[in-house]
Predict the 3D structure of the following.
Amino acid sequence: MLQLSLAWLSVGVVVGVLASVARLRPETWGRRGWLWMLALGAAAGLVGGWLGALVYGRYFGLATALWIAVLAVAMGPRAVRWVQAHIS
């Protein structure tokens, strides 16, 4: 399971890198926003992989990790912007 966890983590990091290159991060995150995108992708990939392994089995954990990481890095910054706009 350690190898699977590392695979899920690396998938999340790759998705985070792609989202950072596509400039999906909010400008309010500053110069280190790319690092937050990597962390968001890595965390989402790891959580998605474990959820996928528990729900669908370990053979489908990688696909679930990919989809959850993509959703997290696509919708996460929008959710942060929405929260910042409504709280401030």
Notes: The helical segments are 2-21, 33-56, 61-87. The two ends are 43 Å apart (CA to CA). The chain has one domain: 2-87.
